[in-house]
Amino acid sequence: MLFDHAGAALAAVGVAVHAAAVPRAAGAAGVAVAARAAVTVAAAARAAVAPGAAVDVAVRLLALGLDELCFGDTIGVGVPPQVRAITARAVDAGIPLEKIAFHFHDTRGTALANVAAALSVGIRCFDASTGGTGGCPYAPGAAGNLATEDLVYFLDASGLDHGVDLDGVLRAARFITDALGKPLATKVGQAGGWDPATGAATGRATARESA
């Protein structure tokens, strides 16, 4: 992951060229290679990053032979118009939609709105973290990554197939947050899923599990 503001990220690409042997070797072995370009919307304590700068990084990285490039809003300031602008700029630069992914942090509660925006323009790959764990140490008030359980519920309710079981994710979320000694603070982690046929919540912890 390239983690710095746009200027430093572009300089880092020059260093990354020396690692071009990695995707070549992975390709020969049949292994897909992806890169995550962080702070592609804005950087902590710095101004917003122009979509063109973020896409320039992506183009240079994909030229190394990568299979996927993920744009990261790792300080959680992005909003849907910025997501659509980055995607449009990337497509204009010749990057296929199927090679674009997004990584959202939910610091300001916009992660799912950004997913919806990305879905609306054809993106189908997103990073997420069970229990919303993780986060950016450089972002004041960082609330963690987009929670897998929130994303899975959203996709289920939107009628989109993805192959992930929400109840299983909720069990994993409770496990990891218990192991970390932290409360499960994600929206779906607290409320559970919802069965439209019965109106009942699903996947919530029982009293025994919560004890």
Q: What is this structure, in a nutshell?
A:
The chain is mainly α and 211 residues long. It is built from 9 helices and 5 strands.
What layout of secondary structure does this protein have?
Elements: H1 6-16, H2 21-28, E1 34-37, H3 51-62, E2 68-73, H4 80-92, E3 100-104, H5 111-120, H6 148-157, H7 166-180, H8 187-191, E4 193-195, E5 200-202, H9 207-210
Parallel strand pairs: 1-2, 2-3
Antiparallel strand pairs: 4-5
Helix pairs in contact: 1-3, 3-4, 4-5, 6-7
Mean pLDDT: 84
CATH architecture of the largest domain: Alpha-Beta Barrel
Class derived from helix and strand content: mainly alpha
* Major beta sheet summary: 3 strands, parallel
Count the DSSP helices.
Answer: 9
Q: Rg to the nearest angstrom?
A: 18 Å
Can you write the helix and strand succession as a string? HHEHEHEHHHHEEH
> Any idea what the CATH superfamily of the largest domain is called?
Aldolase class I
The spatial strand order of the largest sheet comes to 1-2-3
User: First CA to last CA: what distance?
Assistant: 39 Å
> β content, as a range?
5-15%
Look at the structure and give the CATH class of the largest domain.
Alpha Beta
The rough form would be described as globular
Can you count the beta strands? 5
Which spans have pLDDT < 50 for at least 5 consecutive residues?
1-15, 206-211
Integer count of domains: 2
Instruction: Give helix % range.
Output: 40-55%
User: Per CATH, what is the topology of the largest domain?
Assistant: TIM Barrel
